[in-house]
Design brief:
heterodimer, A: mainly alpha, MetI-like fold, 73% helix, B: mainly alpha, 0% strand, globular
């Protein structure tokens, strides 16, 4: 008995050490990023995120254009990708014949498996020329609107938003599909029994699962925020703030990718690491929020489908 | 128009929209495949795999150094990640209810969502800056960190699928928990875990951002792990943003090789999973 107890303890300790390592890596990333960006944090303080000058030669660093570019491109991608991703999720989970389901899941997952560098390559040589053509065709009258000003370059916010949208669609749709699958069948059957059309029944299911759907969308948003290579290759890499979809801009991940090896002063390097730190913090926040949403929805379903209590309208944590 | 036909029309439009979404998503997929294959095939030949890069302006040459580099760096990543991933996966399933396991699960999911460029910055500061030297080891470490959460969660999920009776049976025969896990439960789940590892390797082989300032790049053939090393992805990136026509062609060839790796691995994993499911169903 004694030997066995010791064996179990050893087992628990050995596997536990590796498990703790995973936690240590995450904490380590945060700690190292803070300590390595300390010069920049001390020198610029919060002003770092409020100024727009990015002049490494003069030692003047303001990161507002990068935050702007990251948020703009990610929100743009979200606007394009969300309806499509939800449409795909609904089609695969609710509408398509069972024989089509597996191939469609496989194809959409393939979209998620393509390396980001391949998206970038395709973006440079296929998407950017197409976007440039679109910009040339845009009527002059429309170009007066701030959203469409600027010369037709091809590279810029629109190309970045489009490529991000393609890249995050499979993530959002696969999580949304899982979420829809966990909606109790009774929910839909009840709707059909009341004479609902397909649209009305699915709308009810979507509403029922809204917390998880929001979580799925947030998860896609988190992916878009951190995406590096494809964006770097098509966004134009110009540190400025513009509302125009046609203007070349920059993103947080892209400036790190482009300038990290060129950082010749300690302050320059620390400024770039600080951008990395904030990117880490933002994606952490978005990912945690999305997981909490998905998780709270799933647990509320479990509670709702237990036979003891079957409320007509379960409280999905909103 | 009566309200019933209006509602039916609305429903039909909705169903149409959902079908259309599939098409909208599959069009870029088809486009990417078309261009990668048609452009890549033109530049892909035996030289691509066996020759070194030629100096700018000279036609021909290949990416032999980058292919070997990718294999080595991904291999290093696997060496770092497989033991850590599988062992923490074992902990997660064996001690599922403990506070540590929920912390670890949370950390793994968090790590999975950390942008790859941030992992690159992290590894640069811990493994490149102190020795003032880009190295294949640093690149492997970065890729390893990215693989750990995938392998850990896959291992956990697959271990939980193994019937409890198998574990109980071996415990009843007097096995310790370690023996039950490593000689009964883990082997039962091993084919699935290997599938997950292959998928993780394929995904990680396509990563560029974490390698940009860890393993960096190298125009020459190098197998010394403490030196900068070329990789397919970083080379494709360098070639793609260069102004040279010939390099663009080679970049497409590199992209084709990357996509082929991912595609073949996904297909193999799919076949393996299906076979596993059939075995389990029997």
């Amino acid at each position: 008995m004694k030997r066995r107890g010791q064996g179990d303890l050893g087992f628990r300790l050995t596997t536990g050490v590796f498990a703790v390592l995973v936690v240590a890596i995450v904490i380590g990333i945060g700690a190292v990023l803070i300590s390595e960006s300390w010069l920049s944090i001390q020198k610029f303080g919060l002003g770092f995120w409020q100024t727009t000058t990015w002049d490494p030669v003069a030692g003047d660093f303001g990161a507002l254009p990068f935050i702007w570019g990251t948020l703009y491109s990610s929100i743009l991608a979200l606007l394009i990708a969300t309806p499509v991703a939800l449409g795909i999720a609904v089609f695969i989970a609710e509408l398509c014949p069972a024989s089509l389901r597996m191939p469609l899941v496989f194809l959409t997952e393939l979209l998620a498996a393509i390396p980001s560098i391949v998206y970038g390559l395709w973006g440079i040589f296929v998407l950017v020329p197409a976007v440039r053509q679109l910009e040339i065709w845009t009527p002059e009258a429309l170009k007066q609107i701030p959203l469409f000003t600027g010369p037709p370059l091809g590279v810029g916010m629109l190309a970045a938003g489009l490529i991000l949208a393609i890249m995050i669609t499979p993530f959002t749709s696969s999580v949304a599909r899982e979420v829809l699958k966990s909606v109790p069948v009774e929910q839909r059957e009840a709707a059909y029994a009341l004479g609902a059309t397909r649209f009305e029944a699915i709308k009810a299911a979507l509403y029922y699962a809204r917390t998880g759907i929001v979580g799925a969308v947030m998860l896609g948003f988190g992916r878009a925020l951190g995406e590096t290579m494809a964006v770097t290759m098509v966004i134009g890499n110009a540190p400025r703030i513009s509302a125009s979809l046609f203007a070349p801009q920059y993103s947080m991940a892209a400036v790190i990718a482009n300038e990290f090896t060129e950082a010749d002063t300690a302050l320059y390097l620390d400024a770039l690491v600080e951008i990395g730190l904030v990117l880490f913090a933002i994606t952490l926040f978005v990912n945690i929020l999305s997981r909490v949403l998905i998780w709270s929805m799933k647990t509320s379903f479990k509670a709702a489908s237990s036979p003891a209590l079957t409320p007509a309208e379960p409280e999905a944590a909103a | 128009m009566t309200s019933a036909t209006w509602r039916k029309a609305k429903s039909a439009v909705f169903v149409g929209f959902c079908g259309l979404s599939i098409a909208v998503a599959l069009v870029p997929l088809a486009f990417i495949f078309f261009f990668v294959v048609s452009e890549g095939v033109q530049a892909l030949n035996l030289d691509f795999f066996t020759q070194m890069p030629k100096p700018v302006g000279e036609a021909g040459g290949g990416m032999a150094n980058a292919i070997v580099g990718t294999l080595l760096i991904v291999g290093l990543g696997a060496v770092f990640a497989i033991p850590t991933g599988i062992m923490s996966g074992v902990y997660l399933s064996e001690y599922a209810g403990t506070r540590l396991s929920s912390t670890v699960r949370f950390a793994a999911d968090t790590l999975n969502g950390v942008p790859s460029i941030v992992i690159g910055v992290f590894v640069y500061t811990i493994a490149v800056l102190p020795v003032k030297q880009f190295s294949a080891l640093a690149g492997g470490l970065a890729l390893g960190i990215m693989m750990i959460p995938i392998i850990a969660r896959t291992t956990e999920e697959l271990l939980l699928l193994v019937p409890g009776s198998m574990r109980e049976g071996s415990l009843a025969l007097g096995a310790t928990r370690a023996q039950a896990t490593f000689s009964v439960v883990l082997p039962a789940a091993l084919p699935g875990i290997l599938t997950g590892v292959v998928l993780a390797l394929a995904r990680i082989a396509g990563e560029t951002a974490p390698l940009l300032f860890t393993s960096f790049n190298n125009r020459f053939f190098n197998t010394t792990l403490t030196q900068p090393m070329a990789s397919l992805t970083v080379t494709v990136f360098t070639y793609a943003i260069s102004p040279y026509e010939d390099w663009h062609r080679q970049a497409w060839a590199g992209a084709l090789v990357l996509v082929a790796i991912v595609f073949i691995c996904s297909l193999l994993a799919r076949v393996a999973t299906r076979r596993l499911e059939r075995m389990r169903g029997r």
